[in-house]
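Exam revision sheet. Question 4 asks you to relate a sequence to its structure. Input first:
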Amino acid sequence: MAMRRFLGAALFLAFFSLFSATVACAGLLSLPDIADKVINVGTSVAKAARPITPEEEYYIGRSVAARILGSYKLLNNDEFTRYVNLAGQAVAFHSEMPFTYGGYHFAILDSKEINAFACPGGIIFITKGMIDLAVNEDQLAAILAHEVAHINHKDGLGAIQSSRMTDVVTVIGTEAAKQYTSGQVAQLLNIFEGSIDDVFKSLVTSGYSKSQEYAADESAIVYLKASGYNPAALKDVLANLQTKSGESGGGILKTHPSASDRISAVSAKLTEAQVSEFFDKRTKRFSDHYGKFSK
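Answer key, structure tokens:
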């Protein structure tokens, strides 16, 4: 319920907020009344083509998360969700981007599909089927670290077609002041909605490129080691995934590189196993939580 409340704003409002923040940074002085469609422009086209800000990334991520929750049901298990967040926050804190504009938030999808989704800005979904692959906390952390890496690498934002920002520049123009028609404002909103579609399709339908997946695995190893987890847990959980490859063609088995290829790449990056003195305690903690969760 907490995640639903966090994402509770209407999808249109998220689009509108992103739109407002973006055009404001492009030189739009105010947007007091959307019904009047009066927008003042005060800077050059060059500023409109700037990188997406952390605040905008947050709004994009919220919108993508809302789209995902339109396709998947959120699992109502506050206790296990808190536990997943503790593990996720631990690895995120040891990433290149330990803090985001809206913070990292981890939630569980009530689906047997083996999958996970990293929305721009820090919202991460993991399915029940994916959690079932893990046999200890280190493996759970390895799954979450991989998704945190996608956010750090801004892989979701990379899915947005560059032509969409070109379209924004075209609509805004270079005039010092301009009154926009309702059609032009609608066009801008459609551009941002299209951006959400780009990210959603990349996460859910097509998946990231092989190079992006391998890079996320490589960064996950770094995060795990820095946070005290065993980096080899990533290899172990991929081996668990490999055993599932013949059972289903959906989820990450459809969109990701083969588990065997990822295992080979991860193995080449691993050095000595890092088994902490707290490994047994973490494993028991996982077992205690998972025992209640899996019922």
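Marking note for examiners. The radius of gyration is 21 Å.
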